[in-house]
Design a protein that fits this description.
Blueprint: H1 6-23, H2 28-64, H3 67-99, H4 116-136, H5 142-148, H6 151-167, H7 173-194, H8 197-212, H9 221-245, H10 250-256, H11 258-267, H12 274-283, H13 288-301, H14 304-320, H15 327-343, H16 350-362, H17 369-373, H18 376-401, H19 407-422
Helix pairs in contact: 1-8, 1-11, 2-6, 2-7, 2-8, 2-13, 3-9, 3-13, 3-14, 3-15, 4-15, 4-16, 6-13, 9-14, 9-18, 11-18, 12-13, 12-18, 13-18, 14-15, 14-16, 14-18, 15-16
Amino acid sequence: MKKLGLATQIFIGLAFGIAIGAIFYGNNTVMAILQPLGDIFLHLIKMIVIPIVVSALIVSIAGVGDIKKLGRLGGKTILYFEIVTTIALAVGLLAANLFHPGSGIDMGNLEKGDISKYEETSKTTESTGVAAQIVHIIPTNIFQSLTEGNLLAIIFFSVLFGLGVAAIGEKGKPVLNFFEGVLESMFWMTNLVMKFAPFGVFALIGLNVAKFGIGSLIPLGKLVLVIYLTMIFFVFVVLGIIAKMAGTNVLVLIKILKDELILAFTTASSEAVLPRLMTKMENFGCPKAVTSFVIPTGYTFNLDGSSIYQAIAALFIAQMYGIHLSFIEQITLLLVLMLTSKGMAGVAGASFVVVLTTLGSMGLPLEGMAFIAGIDRILDMLRTSVNVVGNALAAIVMSKWEGGFDKEKAKHYTDSIRKSDVA
C-alpha cells in the first residue's frame, strides 16, 4: 500500500466497499461492523478541523495586521460567493426546466425516507429568521461555539482575535508563535489521519450500498442523472470560464485536487478535505492570509454543488406533484433559495433543510422530500466534490484579485505533481 498514492488507495477502498455492500445487501451484521469503522474516520476528521481553522485564521490575520485590507478581502469574498452561488442556482433551475426530472414519476413505487429531524430543524431555523441567524454569528461563549462546531461564530472570533494579536505588536509575538506551532502540529496530525482514509471510505461506501442497495437508484435515476450532469456542466463550463478569466485552468485544479475530490465524493464530507485543501491551495501560490480566510468561509457561503441540488430538488418536487410554477414564481424561488441558503449556514444537513424551508415558504408539499431522502447520500457525494472545486477556485480568484498570487510557486507545484504522476 505504501507505493500506491492516496487517491489510488481511496479508489481501491471505494471499489471494495461497493463490492462488499452489494454482496451483503441488507445484512445487519455486516452493517454493524462497517458503521463504527466509518464513524471512527469521520470523528478523526472532525477532531482536527476546528483547531486547524482557528490557528490558521489567527496566524494569517495576525500576519496581515491591517483591518482595512482584511475588510476589503472580506467584502470581495462575499461578493464573489454571492455571484457564483446565484449562477449555480440559476443553472439548477434551468436544468430542471429542460429535463423535467419529476415528470411522470409513479410515487407509489418510491420508498419514503424519514425527514422528521430535518423538518424540526427547518421549523426552528425558519422561526428564528435571517436577522437572528446573523446575530448568531457573534458568539456569546466561544468555547460553546467550539464545542458545537459553529464555524461562522468561530471564524468571527478568530478574525477579531488575530487582529488583536497584530494590534499589540511585540507582546503578541509569543501568542502568534504558539498558534503557528499549533498549526504545524495539526497539519502533521492531518497527514497521519489521512493514512486511515482508504479504510474509512471502504466502510462508509460499503455501509451505504449494503443499506440502500444499488436498486434504490432506479426509480429516481432521472433525478440523479440530471443533478450529476448539471454539476459536471457547472464545473467544466461555468467554473471553467471563471478559472480562465482568473488565468488558470479548471482541469489543472482538478488534477491537483484529485485525492481530495475522491475523498470528498466517497465520504460526502467537506470537513474531510478542509485541512489538505488549505495546504494545497497555499502550495499552489495562494497567500496563507487569503487561503485561511476564504476556504473556511466558503464552506458556509460558497456551496455551488449544494445550490444546484437545492434548485433542482425544489422544482423536482413541484413537477412530481404536477404543480406548474410560472417564470415569476421561479424567480421568487431563486430569491428565496438565495436567502435561505445563507441563513442555514452551519446548520446540520443544511442542503436538505434549505429545500424544506423553501418548499414551505412557496406552498409546495414538504412530503416530496421524503422520496429524495433515501438517495440523498448519493446526491451529497457529488455536491460535496463540486463545493470543494468551487472553494479552491475562490481562493485562487481572491488571491489574484488581491494581487498576492505567486505564479512561480504555482508553476513549480504543478510541475512537481506532473513529475510524480509520471514516476
